[in-house]
């Protein structure tokens, strides 16, 4: 318990979520400490876990006077880089990255990932694909042996807006399940990505051959990208409930 929790009774779910926050921090710090070196070009992922990694990155840049250039994977990542006074770049100037660090919604035993819970999957995949090393950070709730055990919202798929109905029908015909248009929290309209597209969340029914599913879905006209990251992650750092870091 840190100081700010003193005198505050926490329910089991609050305790669980504060443990998860601590776990995210452990993972983020471990990845930055183990994989970022002076003169590196670093891909900065999106989500809540990456916030801790960027905190640590900024701290190391200050303390060790590192020369680091950052390439963002989203508007959120861009803002995070700027907020910390880090050097912001892009793929035009830095098409080859030393390392990319990003979160995930679920990680299976083969290091296949579901990503895109925050809708940033396309730029995340582009940046990860440009990196020599793609390192994933997550809390203990993201680890599974088979995709679908932990992340119940399905595989996010970014689509061109006019195509969402036919793409959704084609995916259901090919693989079963249901691909649902992601709506804004206030239900006023669909979520719109940084690329001005929509997101379908495909709730699949059974474990699949994810490499085949990924390439097949990508071939459907209107699909921009899938949140399946197959054979991309080199290492995954999980912050654990007991305060340790587990590496997969
Ligand atoms: C956003 C992502 C995120 O990296 C993923 O959703 C994990 O987020 P968090 O660190 O908040 O759990 O893919 O599109």
Question: What does this protein structure show overall?
Answer:
It is a single chain. The chain has helices at 12-35, 49-64, 75-83, 121-129, 164-175, 210-218, and strands at residues 41-44, 69-72, 87-88, 97-102, 106-107, 113-114, 131-139, 155-159, 178-181, 198-203, 223-226, 228-229, 235-239, 245-247. With 248 residues, it is α/β, with parallel strands linked by helices. The strands form 3 sheets. The protein has a 7-stranded mixed sheet, sandwiched between helices. A 4-stranded antiparallel sheet has the order 9-10-8-11. A 3-stranded antiparallel sheet has the order 5-6-12, with helices on one face. The radius of gyration is 18 Å and the shape is globular. Ribulose-5-phosphate binds at residues 45-49, 102-105, 115-121, 124.
Layout of helices and strands:
Layout: H1 12-35, E1 41-44, H2 49-64, E2 69-72, H3 75-83, E3 87-88, E4 97-102, E5 106-107, E6 113-114, H4 121-129, E7 131-139, E8 155-159, H5 164-175, E9 178-181, E10 198-203, H6 210-218, E11 223-226, E12 228-229, E13 235-239, E14 245-247
Parallel strand pairs: 1-2, 1-4, 2-3, 4-7, 7-13
Antiparallel strand pairs: 5-6, 6-12, 8-10, 8-11, 9-10, 13-14
Helix pairs in contact: 1-2
Bound molecules: ribulose-5-phosphate.
Ribulose-5-phosphate is lined by residues 45-49, 102-105, 115-121, 124.
Question: How are the strands of the largest sheet arranged?
Answer: 3-2-1-4-7-13-14
Largest sheet: 7 strands, mixed
Q: Gap between N and C termini, in Å?
A: 28 Å
Number of DSSP E strands? 14
The 3D shape can be described as globular
Rg over CA atoms, rounded to whole Å, is: 18 Å
What binds here, in terms of ligands, is:
ribulose-5-phosphate
Determine the mean pLDDT: 94
Along the chain, the helix and strand elements come as: HEHEHEEEEHEEHEEHEEEE
What is the share of helical residues? Answer: 25-40%
Structural class by helix and strand composition: alpha/beta
Q: Stretches where pLDDT falls below 50 for ≥5 residues?
A: 1-10
